[in-house]
C-alpha cells in the first residue's frame, strides 16, 4: 500500500508542472535578481539585486559552483553571447566586463556613462548594445570603444534586442515607440503601437514583437512597411521571447508564462508564480525557459 501511495504521489507531481518550477536560483538570499543561461545552456548566471557578485549555478541541479567577483557595484544586467562562451555584464558605475563563465577569466572591459540597466550582445559579432540611465551605446567588446546609438534627442530606450544574425537592433521607448535600426545601412523604421513603456521585444523571422504591460501583443512586419497590429491576449504582458521549435512565449504581469500560437491565438499556461514576469530567457539546447521576476528569485520551467 505504501508503494502505491508513493507511486500516486509521484504521478501527481509529474502532472503538475504549471505550479512546480524545475529549479529556483535564490542567490545571496536576494528575492530578485537578473539571470541568464550560458551559451551552451548548462550554467545559470544570477546577479544579486543587492550585491556586486554574480552566482554561477549548474542549471540542472541548481547547485552554486562558483562566483564571479569582477564588479565592485551592483550588476544591473547580464547576458550571454549565443555563439561563444562569453558573458557581458554591466553595473551601477557603468563598468562593462566581458568574461568566461567556466573560468571567470575577464577577456575585455569597457566604460559607459551612467548606471547600466540593460544590455544585449550581438549574435555573430563583437558588439554589445548597452542602455544606461544616461546613454544608449554600441560597445565593441574587443576594443572597448563605444558608439552612440541613433536615438531621438532627450529620449532613451528602455528595452532592446538584436535579430538572429546581429544585423538589426530593435529598441523600445517609454512613450510606446519602437524602432528597428539596421547596422549596415543605418536606416531606421518606426512605429508607435503603445502609449505605455515598451517592456520587451523579440524578433520572429521578418516580424518584430513587442509588449508594454497591456493585454496586447504588437506584431509588426517592419520589412514590408506594414503598420502592424495588436493581438489581444487574456493577461497584461511583461515579456516576450521566441522559442525556436515551439513558437512564442509570453510572460505576464500576474506571474504566468504562456505559450502563444500566432496562427490560432491559442494560449497555454506553462507556469504560474506570484510575481510579475519581467524577462524570459530560453535555454538554447533544452526545453527550458528561465523566468526573471519583479519580486521573486529567478526560476526555470520545463516546456512540455
UniProtKB/TrEMBL annotation:
Entry keyword set: Repeat, WD repeat
Q: What is the protein name given in its UniProt record?
A: WD40 repeat domain-containing protein
Q: Which PROSITE patterns match?
A: WD_REPEATS_2
Keyword Repeat (UniProt) = yes
Pfam families, per database record = WD40 (PF00400)
Q: Where are the membrane-spanning stretches?
A: none
| Highest taxon above the source species | Bacteria
Please tell me the species this chain comes from.
Answer: Fibrella aquatilis
Keyword Repeat annotated:
yes
Where does the record place its WD repeats? 68-109
Entries under PANTHER family matching the protein: WD REPEAT-CONTAINING PROTEIN POP1 (PTHR44129)
Q: Which InterPro entries does the record cross-reference, listed alphabetically?
A: Quino_amine_DH_bsu, WD40/YVTN_repeat-like_dom_sf, WD40_rpt, WD_LIS1/nudF_dynein_reg
Amino acid at each position: 500500500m505504501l508503494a502505491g501511495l508513493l507511486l500516486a504521489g509521484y504521478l501527481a507531481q509529474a502532472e503538475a508542472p504549471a505550479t512546480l518550477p524545475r529549479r529556483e536560483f535564490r542567490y545571496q538570499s536576494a528575492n530578485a535578481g537578473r539571470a541568464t543561461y550560458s551559451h551552451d545552456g548548462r550554467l545559470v548566471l544570477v546577479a544579486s539585486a543587492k550585491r556586486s557578485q554574480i552566482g554561477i549555478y549548474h542549471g540542472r541541479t541548481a547547485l552554486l559552483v562558483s562566483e564571479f567577483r569582477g564588479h565592485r557595484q551592483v550588476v544591473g544586467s547580464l547576458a550571454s553571447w549565443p555563439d561563444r562562451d562569453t558573458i557581458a555584464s554591466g553595473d551601477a558605475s557603468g563598468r562593462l566586463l566581458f568574461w568566461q563563465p567556466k573560468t571567470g577569466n575577464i577577456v575585455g572591459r569597457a566604460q559607459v556613462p551612467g548606471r547600466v540597466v540593460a544590455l544585449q550582445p550581438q549574435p555573430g559579432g563583437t558588439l554589445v548594445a548597452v542602455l544606461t540611465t544616461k546613454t544608449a551605446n554600441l560597445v565593441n567588446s574587443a576594443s572597448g570603444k563605444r558608439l552612440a546609438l541613433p536615438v531621438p534627442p532627450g529620449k532613451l530606450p528602455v528595452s532592446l534586442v538584436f535579430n538572429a544574425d546581429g544585423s538589426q537592433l530593435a529598441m523600445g521607448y517609454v512613450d510606446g515607440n519602437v524602432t528597428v535600426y539596421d547596422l549596415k545601412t543605418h536606416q531606421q523604421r518606426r512605429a508607435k503601437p503603445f502609449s505605455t513603456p515598451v517592456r520587451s521585444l523579440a524578433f520572429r523571422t521578418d516580424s518584430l514583437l513587442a509588449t508594454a504591460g497591456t493585454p496586447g501583443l504588437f506584431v509588426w512586419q517592419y520589412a514590408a512597411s506594414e503598420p502592424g497590429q495588436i493581438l489581444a491576449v487574456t493577461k497584461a504582458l511583461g515579456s516576450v521571447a521566441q522559442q525556436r521549435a515551439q513558437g512564442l512565449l509570453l510572460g505576464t504581469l500576474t506571474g504566468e508564462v504562456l505559450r502563444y500560437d500566432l496562427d490560432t491565438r491559442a494560449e497555454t499556461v506553462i507556469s504560474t508564480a506570484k510575481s510579475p514576469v519581467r524577462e524570459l530567457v530560453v535555454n538554447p539546447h533544452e526545453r527550458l525557459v528561465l523566468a526573471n521576476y519583479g519580486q521573486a528569485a529567478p526560476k526555470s520551467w520545463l516546456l512540455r
